[in-house]
Structure formats: structure tokens, C-alpha cells
Amino acid sequence: MLPSGQELRLSLKGAWLLLFNRPEGMSYFDLSLPGFWRSFGVVVFLLPAFFITSIAEWQLILAETGLAAEDLPAEAYWLAQSLNFGIDWVTFPFLFALLAGHLGYSRTFVPFIIARNWASLISTAPYALAALLYVTGAIPAGIMVLFSLAGLMVVAWYHFRVARIALGATVSAATGIVILDFVLSLLISELSGRLLGF
Q1: Burial of 34 (0-12, 13-18, 19+ CB in 10 A)
Q2: Could you tell me how far CA 109 lies from the centroid of its own chain?
Q3: Using an 8 Å Cβ cutoff, are 168 and 87 in contact?
Q4: What is the DSSP letter of 1?
């Protein structure tokens, strides 16, 4: 089931407050078990960002390699991107569910994943904006990459704050969780690309 419009509005407000290190943002999420499962429906709202960033990556590959569009298998590219997007969305929550009890976060696991899922709407904004500017020709590839790197640092700090507030994690634990999330995403991207020859 997808989140309602009201839940979307409230949860976005909560995610925005977390960005500014305001713990009261957690009160805007539905922290129930149904709210947990609905938070995975956020993926639908991420699709526009997924498409624009994928198009930007496609154009960047062509620009860097000097290949023509017909020289790259578009079907394989989009399959790799879709696999990467889908698997990445569920892998970290699944892995962290296995680790949460051992790490002492069984009680705060559900609120954390809910907050993380909703925070992804804000996390994707810097990448989507840079990609859109690049695709429309407003900025060159180099500027897009710089924007994306700057966005990565902001997003890492944001996810660190989410882990600190939603999980009640220590600084070192929150740092480790952010690194784990980032490394998993890199591995999934690499494996899905290699699987289809990218």
C-alpha cells in the first residue's frame, strides 16, 4: 500500500526536520508496523529521480567513451540500472534487520528504517538536480560530477544524523552504519553492472 497524501506531507516534514538535526522530526512519521511497510512505498516517488539520473549517467558514458548511442545496448543498461535501484532499496534494511539485535538496536530498528526511507526523498534531490541540469545542457559533465560529490557529502552527513536520532546510535556506530550503507550501494552497483557487461 502506498502512503497517503497526508502521510507523504507529514513524513517529508519529519525528514526535513531531521536534516537540521531536530529530533522532533520523528514525531511526524507513522512509526507503527504498517507505517514501516508503507515507507517502502516511497520508492514510487523516487522513480522520477531514478530516471533523470540514469539518463544523465547514460549521456556521461557516451561523452566519456566517445561511443555513439547505438553502440551501447540500451536494454542491458536500463536492466542494470533497474536491478541496481531495486536491489539497493531493500538490501540495507534486510541486512540491518539481521544485525540490529546483535548491535542492540532491536527497539529502534523500525523507526530508523522508516526515517531512512522517507529521508531518501530528500537525499536524492542533489543528485537529481545535478542530473537535470546536465541533461538539459545547463551545466557540463565536470560541474555535474562536482555537484554530485558535494551532494554525497551532504547526504552522508544527513544519514549520519538520521542514524544518531532515529537509532540513538553513538557517533562511531552512526558513522559505521553510514559507511556500511554506502559500501553496499557501491557493491550492488558494481555487481549489477558487471552482470550485464557494464
Answers
A1: exposed
A2: 18
A3: no
A4: -
Which of 194, 150, 157 lies closest to 179 in space, CA to CA? 157
Can you give the C-alpha Rg of the chain in angstroms? 18
Backbone angles phi, psi at 152, to 5 degrees: -60, -40
Task: Provide the grid cell at 1.
Answer: 500500500
Tell me the pLDDT tens digit for each residue of 135-168: 999 999 899 989 889 989 999 999 999 999 999 9
CA distance 147 to 152: 9
Tell me the CA distances in angstroms from 125 to 5, 72, 102, 120, 154, one per residue in order. Answer: 19, 28, 33, 9, 11
Nearest to 132 by CA among 152, 149, 148: 148
Over residues 174-187, the pLDDT tens digits come to 999 999 999 999 99
Gap between the Cα atoms of 91 and 113, Å rounded: 12
Helix axis angle, 141-162 to 109-123, nearest 10°: 160
Q: Render pLDDT for 75-111 as a digit per residue (tens, 0 to 9).
A: 888 888 898 999 999 999 999 999 999 999 999 999 9
